[in-house]
Write a sequence for this structure.
């Protein structure tokens, strides 16, 4: 195939500024695509550290990795910001079923994060399958009491933007144990928050309402969920849950890793770009969120490599404990508040290392318009969507408590919930060019805001 | 994460038509995403047929598969259109190197399609590494004569749209044997046309200039190419090529597979959508172009499932022999000409089963504008780029000889040249949602053109 690239209409700004910005966008892209180190950084994080739940030994190793990788960018300053984090331990776990035909089957299953297990002992009960909260609410207590409730709620594949499907389904992961315990259930099985045509179970955060018993919750993959659905329709199914997981009350010391390039004209104005260093305790935390970490580091490296001296101070932050506590994001905002720092913009990259499609904004419309005036510059890099209202979890304390304008990188979302919180979230499932293009978009955005003093 | 989806400004057309089209776009998307059969069709093609070079037994099996899959859509008519195709056979092949240090290494290598081998006998010669045609041209004949020339030209990773990089590099695959033979070389090794951070060699079409010796050509993957580069810089490297490949002069009978829904108002106006059924003789031809075949079939299935009675006749065509002869595309255009058919639009999908980003056009600007008037309808489905000038190979005879307006589906391009023409082009590397979204965009486009009689 041969292609002629379309010429975009000149955008409505001084032609010189446009040409200069366009040239710098190209330089940034070329630098990352040709010399970027983010892919290799991700390989080291995934293969030498692996998964790294907050409070674990691996998370400590990840902090060491992050500090080293940050220093290698040649940025002006690297430091560790103390954060106290909770620690949840999975331990051993298994889920088996006995069908009405007397067949016993072991299912791939994962306890949900922060949930309590069965104390390591087998716990058996009949399975009550429901399509969702509504069906459960319609049933009398005696049908629920003593049962293991199976929430067979499907991830909606009709939403093109998969985060919508996630937003729709995730309440079952988060709330179903307390909803079921309130009605007397002994345990909960959920269909994973998964777009996957596969059998990977997806872990992730859940939450107990202290008014009800803390019953165990396990997720199963789509194929197992289809089988369980079939068996439940055929007759009585008994499930046996056995798990050791436990959330420890005492917090443990850990760190956010921060690197900084000091602003050449306005060192007190800070732009933060960050992802989270912790991951769930499965897979390698490659897309979630090793990708965001190495992209944030790449922004600093690219600026140094190109000799860009940003007018504003640029900080890359690897947040700790996004997955099951958000302690890192809170600590960062608390520190900013106590030091009376002037944060002009915070950008999060925590939606996977896929090719970027857009940038989301949580800020005033007049602020969004300042960035959208430059939207045509981004088109050649595949970034066209500036319409979604989205920042990110780690920067939400900055946004909510300090009114800092927030933005989020929006990559292609089709594959994210195939990998998210599973054993399939490994380095091999990240494409080097897609990962790098995400870093390109971040560096371009930050360059623009700093160079034109947009905020 | 939670997301609020941005509301697009109303587009400049009658509000009612817009609302109706928008609703139909949604119906098409929901039907494909929830009930689409293209992913399962692709599984069967990849796993039960596998790779299927034109003229091979597997290609015959693929025709049977295609006819069956087409009939399952419930479309009005399915037929096979005879095409005579060439047959190239790979046979056994190997490539080994002896470094200046005396070490002998076997490399993963693939002969290029349509090339002649070494007659099955080992052929050894010293390796002359050059960066490209320019360097070769600068060397005296005596340095080239009797050598195996290694064209170490790198796929340019700085182009964001990878087809640009392919367009830049592919001349080395296509022309280097004759360029080197003209100067007395005995054989050619090329660095694959590959974006991959891996060692997969990529096959693909090459061409001999009849004025020069038909010397063998082999491709090696990026890791092997890096090693060969290193060894050549260190000292003298001897390569031994051994291959049996051969292009048979006599054509063999084969078929294009065609399915059709007859137009309800203008049955004589035809819209063609197609991909190619043949593949290279490695991997499973999943992205190239099983994806395009199953997407084209999905367009017919979706229209039938939704009860859409298109005003125009819609044809899905699985073309034979795109890879090494284009006989199917030519036969289709010849038939259209001889029957005096009225083709209003031809659309090709042959750039991989990745999430769609745009539609390319090879037609008059006034015709492009007719489609672009509806561009905002496509945005919710990730399709935003209507600026590239691109149709496709199989529809090029229709376009060039019969002036039929041509369009091409433009999916995300980042991963295509990791898989293209390799053993990695397998079903597992296609994502079900991305594949389906491509079919959605095709069905939406065809619906629009037919419903509004745009052409």
């Amino acid at each position: 195939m041969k292609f002629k690239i379309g010429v975009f209409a000149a955008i409505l700004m001084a032609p010189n500024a446009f040409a200069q910005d366009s040239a710098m966008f190209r330089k940034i892209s070329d630098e990352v695509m040709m010399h970027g180190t983010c892919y290799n950084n991700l390989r080291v994080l995934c293969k030498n550290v692996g998964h790294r739940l907050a409070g674990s030994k691996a998370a400590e190793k990840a902090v060491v990795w992050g500090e080293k990788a940050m220093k290698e960018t040649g940025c002006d300053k690297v430091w560790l910001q103390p954060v106290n984090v909770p620690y949840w331990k999975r331990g051993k776990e298994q889920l088996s079923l006995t069908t009405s035909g007397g067949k016993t089957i072991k299912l791939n299953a994962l306890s949900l994060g922060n949930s309590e297990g069965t104390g390591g002992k087998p716990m058996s009960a009949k399975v009550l399958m429901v399509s969702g909260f509504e069906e459960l609410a319609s049933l009398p207590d005696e049908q629920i009491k003593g049962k293991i409730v199976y929430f067979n709620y499907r991830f909606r594949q009709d939403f093109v933007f998969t985060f919508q499907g996630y937003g729709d389904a995730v309440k079952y992961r988060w709330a179903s144990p307390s909803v079921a315990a309130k009605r007397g259930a002994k345990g909960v099985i959920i269909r994973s928050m998964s777009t996957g045509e596969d059998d990977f179970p997806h872990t992730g955060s859940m939450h107990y309402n202290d008014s009800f018993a803390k019953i165990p919750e396990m997720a199963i993959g789509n194929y197992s969920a289809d089988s369980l659905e079939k068996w439940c329709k055929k007759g009585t199914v008994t499930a046996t849950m056995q798990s050791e997981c436990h959330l420890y009350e005492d917090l443990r010391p850990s760190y956010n890793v921060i690197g900084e390039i000091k602003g050449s004209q306005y060192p007190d104005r800070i732009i933060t770009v960050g992802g989270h260093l912790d991951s769930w305790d499965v897979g390698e935390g490659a897309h979630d969120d090793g990708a965001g970490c190495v992209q944030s580091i790449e922004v600093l490296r690219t600026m140094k490599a190109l000799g860009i001296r940003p007018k504003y101070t640029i900080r890359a932050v690897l947040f700790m404990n996004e997955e099951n506590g958000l302690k890192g994001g809170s600590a960062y905002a608390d520190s900013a508040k106590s030091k009376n720092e002037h944060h002009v913009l915070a950008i999060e990259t925590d939606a996977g290392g896929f090719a970027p499609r857009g940038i989301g904004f949580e800020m005033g419309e007049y602020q969004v318009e300042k960035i959208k005036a430059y939207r045509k510059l981004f088109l050649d890099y595949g970034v066209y969507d500036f319409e979604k209202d989205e920042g990110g979890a780690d920067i939400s304390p900055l946004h909510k408590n300090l009114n800092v304008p927030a933005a989020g990188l929006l990559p292609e979302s089709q594959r994210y919930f195939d990998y998210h919180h599973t054993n399939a979230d490994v380095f091999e499932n990240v494409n080097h060019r897609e990962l790098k293009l995400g870093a390109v978009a971040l560096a371009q955005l930050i360059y623009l805001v700093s160079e034109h003093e947009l905020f």
Q: What stands out?
A: Chain B has a mean pLDDT of 96. The two ends of chain B are 43 Å apart (CA to CA).
